[in-house]
Amino acid sequence: MTITQTLAQGAGCVRRSLLGALMMGLLLGAGALPAAAESREELRAKMTAALQSYLKERRKIELISGVSAFVSFRDGETGISAVAGTTKFYDSGERITRRTLYQIGSNTKQMTAAVLLQLEAQGLLDIDQTVGDWLPQYPAWRKVSIRRLLNMTSGIPTYTEADAFMASQANHPNRHYTPEQLIAFAYPTPTNQLPTSTGWFYSNTNYILAGMIAEKASGRSLKQLYQTGLFDRLYMKDSFYEPRALPESVLARMSSGYFNNPTCGVYEPDCKVAPLAPLVGKNMRRADISWAGAAGGVVSTPRDLQRWVRGLFAGRVLPPKQLKEMLELVSLESGKPIPETTAEDPRGFGLGVAAAYAPGLGHLWFYEGITLGYRAVHFYFPKDDLVVTVFANSQAPEGKDELPPLALKLYELITDRSAPDDGPEAPQDFD
After folding, report:
1. I need a surface site. Which of 4, 118, 227, 391 has the fewest CB within 10 A?
2. Domains (range + CATH), the chain
3. What gap in Å lies between CA 183 and CA 353, rounded to an integer?
4. What pTM did the predictor assign?
């Protein structure tokens, strides 16, 4: 998996494992509720057993030592948390708890989009304004609107696939980057010409630009905007963002996180040596996370991510107009607007949010964020009013990530339903 896919797995780069699981495992009815005869502790025991089984089967393949999950049945109700494993792979480490922290990767993008929409609601910007209006220092992208940055139709290359950036990450994982330095890896110059795109293309550069616009429009740091506009509002007491290396108080609560996925990049798919090969097997917990920034730099827990998903879709983050804008989709196939995902066009992207169509469930929302040592998945099933979040402490090898199917397994346990053995063929992989 490339470093772009690292930040995008559940949204832009939903690989076959995710949509395949959706299309083949969710031919289910509506009205999901916990089995009436089972207590909360019985359900927790089932969830814990599923996590333990996953850890036993996937430990060496994915280089994981710990898994955490949270299931929320209805908005406003207390859910169930479950954990398995320890914080370290190579020695015993401490036991994972429900408050153990992980990087959540591109789930951060939803938060960045929400901050910009909050600023729009306050009259401080309009998402149809352009990069040229706010960041004139980037004239090559002057006509690109904020909306197109957020829905990934900008055509702007992704800095995370630039050879120079990947070499820097491989050799200097503790290097601190400013947003301007990240953008410089992608900005066109006579000596730097990354391929542009048409239609829909997942670019982390879009969200670094978006974060810069948010700070300029508000006169506040992105950390302040997340904290006051999102974390405090939704009682997300275990969520953190830092523009530089994380403080010791946060690192002390974080699980170790391991990189285990050396593949070639999007722009050089036939390389002989994977650019990130030097990081394989390394614990990335203390690596500087500024490389992800507004595109993927938040640290959190499964319970807090559930609070985020609940708060967003229940309208506690954005006014109705801005929430409607956030959920307006473009097709991942064509890049053109679609009213919703369907069997004919099953994959969509809004402003930092991803959607899919699954037989029996219709339209649902999901994301999997991945950084160099962590994965964080969430599913929201509107028909059931059910949220599932699952975290793991590694980046798995290409094609070996089974965390989304684990989330669906927990859905089955909670709803007391069995997925069928087969279903429609999953859509083709996409980047």
Report:
1. 227
2. 3-415 (3.40.710.10)
3. 22
4. 0.90
